[in-house]
Amino acid sequence: MFESLPGFRDFPPETCAQRNHLFRVFRTVARAYNFSEYDAPVLEPLDLYVEKSGEEIVGQLFHFEDKGNRRVALRPELTPTLARMVASQANSLPKPIKWFNIGEHFRYERPQKGRGRSFFQFNADLLGETNPLADAELISLLVAIFHTLGLGPNDFKIRLSDRISWVHFLSDLGITDEQRPSVLDAIDKSERRKPEQTIESLEEVVPQKGEILFNQISEIKKIDSLDGIVDKLNSIGEEESKRAQDWLQLINFLKAHGAYECVKIDLSIVRGLAYYTGFVYEAFETTGEGRALAGGGRYDHLIKKLSGNIDMPAAGFAIGDMTLSDCLKSKGLLPNYVMSPDLYIISSVENTEFGISLISQCRKAGFSVSYSLKNAAFGKQFKEAGKSGARYGLILGEDEREKSEIKIKDFKSGKEKTVSQKSLIEELENLDEAGGID
Ligand code: HAM
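That is the input. Now the predicted structure with histidyl-adenosine monophosphate docked in place:
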């Protein structure tokens, strides 16, 4: 017997229906925000990720050499692909670009709760706009999706932070441009590590000063209010105060969207991916349980890095399906879809072919129809109809055939009605509206 590979999931119909429920909500809400759906290849040149996504993701790549000796990788995320696509048509695309995608991604991670080697993401990105209105639009979309799925402000929080503020705070602490990426990486990992490990990483960047820096960073991470951030930025200098204004604007826009009650300022978020340049955020269950439900932020330099000459600001986020499904399931918010036909046709053996022509008419009219594929006896077909969960049985015996009629049985009320075959579709549509035979 073969099993699926570690970290890969099968989706039997019930699970697939639940996944499709998420996808339906993603599509509906993204449309409401006027985002357009796009798609892209799952296999990309390996170099698209090296240096752009950051070490962590590169270490998790599924990659190989194809038969044409190209070094290729299954996409671990969509952002570099999107940047590549947009860069190639940058001049012809009307701005701002508001695109979304639902697709499968692959990372060679240790499989654990909420983490697999194959998972789906909903990605939404807004390109061509630097105004914090764009960041607010994205965060509001993220909040609206969670709300539509039934999650309220007590269920989840978007932890909001800012890379630019961190750049200012770290420069103020004497950290150079060269040292900064390693320090940010240590801050990102510090949530999952013991303090000694973080101090050790910081010590490698600023010898003899790891512990002092750790304490200074810990103090900054304690700032959890807008006033606190604004005061801190204003206290550093004029350039830094400009960022305080961006914070004030963003929070006002989030309030206007009605999204701010789901947002929590949290400077411990810096995001592991290398390309972020501005406001960044991650969504978590309020209990703090589980890995992130979603993550994103602004990445204003990635398109230039990939294209060499095109300057295009960008921001976006991705929601993962695994943590989100776990969260919804634990709160009873994942609907259990019953996959039953609308109609089950029960016919005598002599009527099989005529029955199929009626089935075909019903299907064309949009009903889901099932029937026995075994030429089974009447009684057995009734049993199968009951098991199928069909709402109505359509009974075609000799009598009905002779009179060009058909009997409709309402399996819910147990009542029956005989109608002419000609008017069957109309009768079924009327029943649909009336809610059954009484
Ligand atoms: P990310 O934080 O790496 O961001 O992933 C976003 C979400 O995808 C995570 O919060 C998580 O729900 C899910 N996810 C990531 N890795 C796994 C895994 N191994 N198993 C299950 N779920 C996982 C990005 O991918 C960015 N490209 C998002 C973005 C879009 N930034 C700008 N635009």
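Residues 13-32 form the longest helix (20 residues).
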